[in-house]
Amino acid sequence: MIKSELVQRIAAQNPHLYQRDIENIVNTILDTIAGAMASGDRVELRGFGAFSVKSRPARIGRNPRTGEKVEVEEKHVPFFKTGKEMRERLNAG
Amino acid sequence: MGGKTVTRADLCEAVYQNVGLSRTESAELVEAVLREISDCLVSGESVKLSSFGTFNVRSKTERIGRNPKTGEEVPILPRRVLVFKPSNVLKDHVNGITGSEAAGEDD
Predict the structure, then answer these.
(1) Cβ separation A37–B7 shorter than 8 A
(2) pLDDT tens string B7-27
(3) Which one of B36, B62, B89 makes the best mutation probe of the A interface by having the most chain A beta carbons within 10 Å?
(4) What's the superkingdom here (chain B) (predicted)?
(5) Exposed e or buried b per residue across B43-56, where buried means at least 16 C-beta atoms within 10 angstroms of its C-beta
(6) Is A28 at the interface with chain B, CB within 8 A?
(7) Which residues in chain A have their CB less than 8 angstroms from residue B6's CB?
(8) How many domains does chain A have?
(9) What number of C-beta contacts closer than 8 Å exist between A and B?
C-alpha cells in the first residue's frame, strides 16, 4: 500500500470528507512524527510502535575504491521499534 | 536536543490545528490512519509512505537462541517481524539537512 492508496481507503470510510482533507491529515501525522524526530524527541504510539533517533558516533571510514581514510562525522538515524500489540497481531494464529 | 515524548494526543492536536475538524473527529481520523496501516501490515502487505519511509513484514525462520542468564538453549520459533526503513528525506531531516541542501534522491 502506498500513501495515495492509504488516503483512498480512509476517504472511502469517510464519504463526508474531502480527499484533500484526508491527504492533509495523513501528511500532518507523518510530518509531526518526522518533526519530533528531527528535534530529537521520541514518538510513542501505543499498539503500533515507537519512533526514536539513535546517534552513530563519528568514525574513521575508508573510501572502498582507493582505501583512503576519511573522517565520518557523528550522525543520527531514525529508528522504529514495533509495539507489543502489533508484534502479537503479526504472530496471532 | 529533545527528550520529550510525542504521543497520539499530540498527533490529534496537530491534525485539529491543521485540518479544521473537531477534536473528536481529528482523534478518530488519526486512529483510522494507524488502524489502516496496521491492518495492512498484519495482512502481510508492506506500506510505503513516500518521503517518510517503508514498513515491511519479514518472516523469520526458527533458530536456536540462548537464555543469556542461564546459558540454556531455547528454540526461537518462526515469527513475523516488522521493519521500518526510513526514506532518505527522513534520514536527512533527522540530521538537520533541509530539502534544498539534500543532494541525494529519494524513493
Answers:
(1) no
(2) 999 999 999 999 989 999 999
(3) B36
(4) Bacteria
(5) eeebbbbebbbbbb
(6) yes
(7) 32-33, 36, 41-44
(8) 2
(9) 148
Strand, helix or coil at B22?
coil
Interface of A with B in 45-84 (CB under 8 A): 45-49, 51, 53, 75-80, 82
Predicted pLDDT of residue B106: 45
Top-level class of domain B46-99: few secondary structures
Give dist(CA B8, CA B6) in Å, integer: 7
pLDDT(A9) > 80: yes
Per the structure, the complete domain to which residue A11 belongs is given by 1-41
pLDDT by residue (tens digit) across B31-77? 999 999 999 999 999 999 999 999 999 999 999 999 999 989 999 99
Q: Do A36 and A70 share a domain, yes or no?
A: no
Let me know whether A20 and A63 are in one domain: no
Asked if residue A17 and residue A60 are part of one domain, the reply reads no
Q: Give yes or no for a contact between A50 and A83, defined as CB atoms under 8 angstroms apart.
A: yes
Tell me: ipTM over 0.90. no
Residue carrying C-alpha cell 516488522: B82
